[in-house]
Design a protein that fits this description.
By secondary structure, this protein is of the alpha+beta class. The protein contains 15 helices and 18 strands. Strands 1, 7, 8, 9, 10, 11, 12, 13, 14, 15 and 16 form an eleven-stranded mixed sheet that branches. A three-stranded antiparallel sheet has the order 4-6-5, covered by helices on one side. A hairpin with a 5-residue loop joins strand 2 and strand 3. The termini are far apart.
Length: about 575
């Protein structure tokens, strides 16, 4: 199968008309009053290019939009564009080195000015500006230029044949920003543009009216939105903070809120809340994996800030594969699923458990083996010489780690169990939990973000847009590590660097045969997990949220932002 044939077969039929959400009845914009959303991870910024936190990406989706999205089945659908470009419709070049997008006619920003191809081009310039830190840099890997054809048309050029050209400007992680608003925010100045980052001018169904960082965001209907009868809601209150339990109760028991995201709760707790009859849970499996990331660099506070948690300072013992493997096989993943997720979770050894074509047959971590873990550490020379229950390195340095994650009941249960299992193999563990709004916030000045990673290991989950993990796996390239000169942005948070990985990922970018893409994707997954245990997957998580029974239009999407179709949400009779 040729590269071109594979691309044509995959998306040749996807020349859809731009999305316009049916809301069940015609009516005036704003007719349904106020919509109340609660995310127990509070919003820190409304710019996905400066944060990879899901809560920030989702909140941004109310305001700024990409050229295309992925629907709830994982199919690409146009948003600001007229159609999804393909080889068949002429939008993707025969040699697969470029993709041409055409904006819908008459699109305007919320300030009434026209949306043009310059805004698309500028978005690329913004994320790739020298001296800046872009959380979504992997989306633009291989892009050599974004050329303006005319006011409504741009061509994205790649450095070689690119079978998956739908990385830039697709999905909630890669929206179009207004060139005029962000013109003075390039490179190192990006984090300084508070007004733009907190209240972007957008094309989406809502505009920001007030933003209290790590607390609440208020929105109003965008009077310039392209569908006259949408959004149905006049205002949105987007509340953050608290915990998943309080959020679930606020929707399913008290009715104080209409939608609650990420019900990371024990299954019996969710079932009990649903008995209230006010709201209902909704769930679906995608590629969301709760995992432990291992820091390959030294987070010691004794080091200079410019060296701490950077490649200049290797970790004293977590760079040893034997230690990482022992830590992985000491964990009972079946028990974690039982106490944390029930039917909404599955034990996994993979970073990419879906789609199936990319899922490795890696199952070696699924059986807990404390004896084998201890044997690995014995063979590697880590002994408990003083009898205190903690192994040491040859120089006497104890195998003592700081294990951090966001504040959440399920995650704290996981921490307690894993700490106990690691103690059984002679690894001492200190636990730390951080407010989720801060942990996932991406503030370059904060020492507590997951990107800065001032700990030895940390636990979280995230996911990629669409059904192709190319850019997700590209986040672990050598040059994607967060560091001071990237404003601590970047997804390679464990500072993994393997030239062989980089080379294989480059092969993925130019491979069109879908089966071969699956093979390469699974091999990349294994390099991060089975072969090195740099990432220690725990649970393949189903996404679970909750909505009021009076809220219509909900279509849970595991392949894009959960709020991807919020323009079509509306109030219904219970």
């Amino acid at each position: 199968m040729t590269i071109k044939t594979a691309l044509m077969g995959a998306v040749a039929s996807l020349a859809f008309a731009p999305m316009a959400f049916a809301d069940g009845h015609e009516g005036e914009r704003g007719r349904d009053g106020e919509l109340r959303i609660i995310y127990w991870q509070a919003v820190s910024i409304l710019n996905p290019y400066l944060s990879s936190g899901t809560k920030d990406i989702d909140a941004s989706a109310l305001v700024i939009e990409p050229l295309g999205r992925y629907d709830s089945s994982g199919n690409p659908v146009p948003y600001l564009a007229t159609e999804i470009p393909t080889v068949a419709n002429g939008g993707v070049s025969e040699d697969l080195t470029s993709i041409t997008w055409t904006l819908q006619e008459g699109l305007v920003w919320s300030d009434g000015t026209p949306v043009t191809s310059r805004d698309v081009q500028f978005t690329w310039e913004y994320c790739t500006a020298e001296g800046g830190g872009c959380a979504q840099a992997a989306k633009f890997e291989g892009v050599t230029s974004v050329d303006i054809v005319d006011d409504l048309t741009v061509t994205v050029n790649f450095d070689g044949p690119t079978p998956n050209p739908y990385q830039p400007f697709m999905g909630g992680q890669s929206p179009i920003i207004q060139a005029a608003q962000f013109a003075d925010c390039l490179g190192p100045r990006a984090p300084e543009c508070t007004d733009a980052n907190f209240a972007p001018i957008g094309t989406g169904p809502f505009v920001v009216t007030d933003f209290r960082v790590n607390d609440v965001v208020s929105f109003a209907a965008n009077e310039n939105y392209r569908v006259a009868s949408q959004p149905a809601f006049a205002t949105v209150v987007f509340k953050g903070g608290g915990d998943a339990t309080a959020a679930g109760r606020a929707v399913m028991e008290t009715g104080e809120f209409d939608y609650a995201w990420n019900m990371q709760l024990a299954p019996d707790v969710i079932a009990g809340m649903a008995e209230g009859g006010v709201g209902s849970p909704v769930s679906a499996f995608g590629a969301l994996v709760e995992r432990i990331e291992v820091n390959l660099t030294d987070p010691s506070p004794d080091l200079d800030e410019g060296i701490r948690s950077t490649a200049e300072a290797p970790h004293p013992f977590l760079t040893d594969p034997a230690v990482r493997e022992a830590m992985s096989i000491a964990i009972d993943r079946e028990l974690l699923v039982e106490i944390g997720y029930g039917q909404a979770g599955r034990p996994t050894c993979n970073l990419v458990p879906a789609p199936a074509i990319y899922a490795s047959d890696n199952t070696g971590c699924l059986t807990q083996d404390i004896d084998r873990a201890n044997a690995l550490l014995d063979e590697a020379g880590y002994m408990d010489t003083d009898g205190d229950g903690v192994r040491e390195m040859a120089d006497g340095t104890p195998l003592s780690i700081l294990y951090q994650t966001s504040t959440n009941a399920v995650r704290q249960d996981f921490q307690a169990l894993i700490k106990e299992w690691w103690s059984e193999i002679g690894i001492e563990t200190e636990l730390r939990n951080i407010d989720a709004g801060v942990f996932f916030g991406g503030d370059p000045g904060s020492p507590d973000t997951f990107q800065r990673f001032y700990a030895d290991v940390e636990m979280y989950a995230n996911v990629f847009d669409g059904t192709d993990p190319q850019s997700y796996l590209g986040a672990y390239l050598c040059d994607k590590a967060p560091r001071p000169d990237t404003q601590w942005q970047g997804e390679n948070i464990n500072r993994f660097c393997d030239p062989a990985y980089d080379a294989l990922w480059q092969e993925l970018t130019s491979t069109g045969d879908l089966d071969e893409r699956g093979r390469i994707g699974a091999a990349l997954n294994d390099m991060l997990t089975k072969d090195s245990n740099v990432i220690i997957p725990l649970v393949d998580r189903g996404r679970v949220s909750a909505h009021a029974n009076s809220l219509g239009g909900i279509e849970l999407n595991v392949w894009d932002s959960e709020l991807w179709n919020i323009a079509g949400w509306h109030r219904i009779s219970e």
